[in-house]
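Example 363.
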Amino acid sequence: MSHVETFILDEIEKQKSPFAPSLLSRAEKDRLVGRAFHGLYRWYLDRSQTNRTWSPDRTFNWRDIRQDHSPELMAIIEGMYAIEQFAPDYTSELTRLARTSYGRSQFQLRWGSEEAKHSDLWRNTLLFTRARTPERLEQYTADLRANSWTLPFDDPLRMILYTVVQERATQLNYLNLLKIVRGKSDRPHLTGEADPVLAHAASTIAVDEAAHFDFFLEGARLYLYYYPEETLAALVDVLRGFMMPAHALIPDYDKFVRTVYDGGVFDRRKHSRDVVQVALKGLGVESLRAIENGIARTRRVPTEDGVERDTAIFQGSVEGVDFPVVEKMVMRLFARIGGYEEEIGLSEVSPTVFVRNTWPSAA
Ligand SMILES: [Fe+2]
Ligand SMILES: [Fe+2]
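Predicted structure in complex with fe (ii) ion:
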C-alpha cells in the first residue's frame, strides 16, 4: 500500500464516529457504490494500460511454438478458446445490464477488450501449433457462433457475484494449464508438454484473469457492505447453481470437461477449495452453510421507511460474515481510489469519499 493510501486510511479511521450514525438511504448507498465503481474503473484502466499491454500477435514468438503437443492438451486449449470466443456476447450482455452505472459499464467494455484478446491468443495457439487447420478453426467458430450466450441471471447484483466465481475459476484453469506447459504436470500423459511460448501465453492470460477477479471482488464487497442482506441471499442463489459460462453452447462439452479433469486442470474439489473458498474468504464469508443458517434465522424488522424487511445484520454482525473485516476491505478500496485521485489531481476537483454504513440496532 502506498503512503498516500495509508494516510487516507488513517484519515477515514479518524472520521469514523464512535456512535452509530443515522442509516444511509438507499439513494445514498447507490451513489456510494456507483462512485466507488467509477473510481475503481479509473484505477483499473490506468493499471491495465500501464502494466498489462500485450499483443496476441507480436508479444509471443509464434515461430518457436512446438508443433508436437498431445491431442489432449490441444483439446483443452480448444475448449478454452471456445469459452473465450464468446467475448462479444459476454461484453454486450454485461454492459447492457450495467448500463446505468457509469463506472461499471465502462469497465465492462475494457474487460471485454481484454477477454477478446484471450480468444485471439488461443486462436493463434491452435493455428501456430498446427493443431487445427485454418478451415477447421473457421468451421468450429462458425458452429459456436450459431448460438449466443445469454445472462444466467438478469440482475446486476447476482451477475457480479457470478463473475467473481467465474473469473477465479478461469484464473485457476490457466494456472493449472501453466503447470502443464512448464513441464510440471503430475499426469503421466501430460509430462512432456513443456513449451516456453505456450507458458508465456498461459501466464499472460492468468495475470489478466487475476486483475478481473480483483475488480469484481472489490465490486461485490461494495454490495455486501452496503446491501448485506440482499447480497448474501444472492450469493447463496449464485453458488448453489453455479455452472461455467457457455457450458451449454460448446459441442461435446462433457468430453471437454473429462479432458480437463484428466489433465488435472479443474475438478469439483478444486472448484470448492480453490474457487468457492477463495471467493468467500475474499468476501469475509466463513462458509456457504453458515450464511444459509444466518438467512434462515433472519428476523423481519421495519426499516426507516416503515417497510418490513429481512434484516439479519445488526450492528454489523451476522452469522458467517466478518463485517469488521468487510468494512476494512471496503475502506482499503476507498483508500486505493483516494490515493490514485491524489496522484492525478482529481481529489482537488471531485474526490471519492468513503461513508460508513451502519445498521439498525437489534433492540
Ligand atoms: Fe479470459
Ligand atoms: Fe476474465
